[in-house]
Specification:
Distance between the termini: 12 Å
Number of helices: 0
Structural class: mainly beta
Low-confidence stretches: 1-6
Shape: globular
Strand content: over 45%
Largest sheet: 4 strands, antiparallel
Helix content: under 10%
Order of helices and strands: EEEEEEE
Number of strands: 7
Strand order of the largest sheet: 2-3-4-5
Radius of gyration: 13 Å
Length: 108
């Protein structure tokens, strides 16, 4: 699934340009923890809802939804977008060229 990222319901999640990071954000009234780590094969994400890990080792790709299913328990989905083209996410561009977006709810 891909998106043009023109939907006003998308929220940008702030990131830093570091190779391994963990952040907690409140989205749709729930605390979501996101861990990002750069490896030689790409950028990977883990997601927690509260204290429970719900997704692990998700390869981050440009304009590709990361969770893809309400069964994860997450209140919505996440996608990365290259603001200058279609480059795959890389830690050096996080927060500037490479942006992480959140969309509340699920498209059925």
């Amino acid at each position: 699934m891909t998106t043009a990222l023109s939907d006003n319901s998308l929220l940008m999640v702030p990131l830093a340009a570091i190779p391994a990071q963990m952040l907690r954000v409140t989205l749709s009234g729930q605390t979501v923890q996101i861990a990002l780590r750069q490896r030689s094969t790409g950028l990977y994400a883990d997601f927690w809802l509260g204290n429970a890990r719900v997704l692990s080792g998700v390869l981050c790709q440009d304009r590709t939804w990361l969770a893809r299913d309400a069964a994860t328990g997450l209140p919505g989905d996440f996608t990365f977008a290259d603001s200058q083209g279609t480059q795959e996410p890389d830690y050096q561009a996080l927060g500037s060229r490479c942006l992480l977006f959140y969309r509340a709810g699920w498209v059925v």
